[in-house]
Amino acid sequence: MEYTRIRASFCEHKDRFYRVLLVRNDISLMELGFVLGTAFHASFEHLFLFESNDICYVPKEFMTFPSTSYRGMDAYCMKDLESPFRYVYDAGDNWNFEVRILPDPEEIDSSDLAFLVDGKGQGIWEDRSVTVRALLDGKVSPDLSQDDEEHGILFPWNFRVERLGDFEKPLNLEDEKERFKGASETAMDLFMNRHDRFSDDDDDLWDTYEELCDQAYAAYDDDNDDPAVWTELYDEFIRVCNVLKSENRLPGSLDELDEDTMADFSILMDEAPDALENAGMYDEVIHYLTWLKDTFRLDEFDEEDVTMHLLVCQANLNDSYASLRLARDFVRNYPENMAGQGMLVRAYAAMGDNDSAREVIEKFIQDDTECTEDNYPLFRAASLFYEMTSETEKKEMIDQKIEDEEDRESGRMHTITGDDYEDILPENLELLDMCCMEFENTQSPADLLMVTAVLGKILDSDGELYCNVIEPEPGVLQVLAYADPDGNSILPVYTSEYTAYEMEEEENASLRPIPLNSIIAHIYEHDMAGLVINPTDYSTGTLVPKEAMSFLVDLLHLDLDQASGLLS
User: Fold this and answer.
1) Looking at residue 567, what DSSP letter applies?
2) What's the whole-model pTM score?
3) What are the pLDDT digits (tens) for 286-339?
4) Cα separation of 356 and 440, whole Å?
5) Which of 61, 126, 215, 242 has its CA 20 to 30 A from that of 511?
6) Are 32 and 119 a contacting pair, CB within 8 Å?
């Protein structure tokens, strides 16, 4: 079989992050996408695409409407693209690689799709391209050993690293080559099987699943506290999921179930247990949530919620041993989770083991430890413990710190900040874009959701957005805009210098942070159609029409008169 040598290089730092591979000459684009993703350690939690000569090649299942600039990649092979072309993994996170076809093909007695030859750079840090770019750009220290949330520098969840600089540790090529063998085919099979689970439009089981989720939301909205309603919903939910699991069509984790279906099961996980607990049906809650844990992989926060419900039920059933065992298991898995430590304190106290409860409290709470949003559950458990042990002075100190944090939290509830905006945002750009389109088309209640999402992006950049400007004379800034297909003037803006790296450079232009009120004032003064956030050469970005600006002005109390005149 004849193989072609290719080199895929990270677009901004081609010599510091790349892979060289031998791929079969007849490799399809779909196969090549999985080969490249596997070489870079992608988990395929996100989609990939190819770009060549202004044509974007995407999986045909995701082409929702005909387009002259898009093609379904299933019908194309690598040899159909002109070298170099671009491989994009997770367009929302901008993992962009230039792929070059190198000379001198080789004849190899094999039918494998590809072989790994060489490379540099650890791999794709899922959802952390900003961190990798900052590292490679020299804007953050390679010795950083923990998250710097203020500046958006976060450690990867799909790699274990002690410091940021570990990204550039030399690869163990023998281990990498062994890992790579057959892995791309496996990843492709798993991904397509996952897609096939949901691809049948006439699938009654998935229809039933979505109807159950809708019914749960309706019961929640109606404040229905009838336990019979919730037990009936949960029993049917379990039945449907068990059948799907027996047919190998049920995702293995709650995250996958949430991402791959349009329905949201969270009411059945959160509100249904509350309703049953209020009715004293503790055994039923334990039965349902134990099934949930046995059926799906849970992330830390889902595990925390489920464990808390189980502990409440076991406490009411006076099963102290089961409570302690459950709390210990959770803390063993998540030792830094303060809610879990609070559960452990309560469980020890319920067993009468005050020494162990006190040891947990004193490990994490010293005299100078402040109560925060993260450790609040542990402080609450400590307060109850000191009340039980009649340690009045310690309880008063703990309660004062709790009160101080509750006062701060009350203030935070009325002031959205860049640190916590993610809690109120849609979890993905697809939902945000959908809300924007809904606003544009119907002026529906999606207004607030859209504006909240955009507001979060703006606050994440400390109230300023970056614009491409020229300065014809000192103190005079001219912002560069462009026209949409209908001839309307649109102002492109960027939430950070990192998101502007794809920006088309203009002569004598520079990237400048501009206050939001000045941007909106400029849009009004020049009767522009709106602004678009983080556009790139392959993505239109998030459009915010001028009609939505009044929401932002009101929410942020922007003074447009004061801002007028900064931009010309």
Assistant:
1) B
2) 0.45
3) 999 999 888 888 888 888 999 999 988 988 888 888 899 999 999 999 999 999
4) 59
5) 126
6) no
Residue 19, Ramachandran bin (φ over 0: left; ψ between -120 and 50: alpha; else beta)? beta
Given a contact cutoff of 8 angstroms between Cβ atoms, the answer to whether 438 and 444 are in contact is yes
What are the structural domain ranges in the chain?
Answer: 2-121+171-192, 126-165, 201-412, 421-563
Q: Looking at the domain 201-412, which fold is it?
A: 1.25.40
User: What's residue 327's pLDDT?
Assistant: 92
CA distance 422 to 170: 35
Across 127-167, the runs of DSSP E, i.e. the strands, are: none
Six-digit token string for 40: 């870079």
State the average pLDDT for the chain: 79
Q: CB of 212 within 8 A of CB of 240?
A: yes
Min mean pLDDT across 228-237, 371-380, 431-440, 526-535 is at 431-440
Q: Which residues contact 468 (CB under 8 A, 6 or more apart)?
A: 479, 480, 492, 500, 503, 506, 509, 510, 511
- What is the residue type of 405? E
Helix (H) or strand (E) holding 36: helix 29-39
Q: Contact 213/269 with Cβ under 8 angstroms?
A: no
* Backbone torsions φ then ψ of 156, nearest 5 degrees: -75, 155
**Mean predicted confidence (pLDDT) in 149-156:** 84
| Overall average pLDDT of the 180-198 stretch | 59
221 contacts 256 by C-beta, under 8 angstroms: no
Q: Which two tokens stand for residue 114?
A: 């590809």
Which CATH number fits the domain 2-121+171-192, given the four candidates 3.40.50.620, 3.40.50.1820, 3.40.630.30, 3.10.290.30? 3.10.290.30
pLDDT (tens digit per residue) in 246-285 = 887 888 887 777 766 656 677 777 788 888 898 899 999 9
- In this chain, the answer to whether the domains covering 2-121+171-192 and 201-412 adopt an identical fold is no
- Token pair for 24: 């079969």
Looking at CATH, the fold of the domain delimited by 421-563 is given as Trna Endonuclease; Chain: A, domain 1 (3.40.1350)
Question: Amino acid identity, residue 12?
Answer: E
Instruction: Please state, as a whole number, how many other Cβ atoms lie within 10 Å of the Cβ of residue 508.
Output: 8
Six token digits for residue 136: 């490679």
Do 314 and 326 form a contact (C-beta atoms < 8 A)?
A: yes
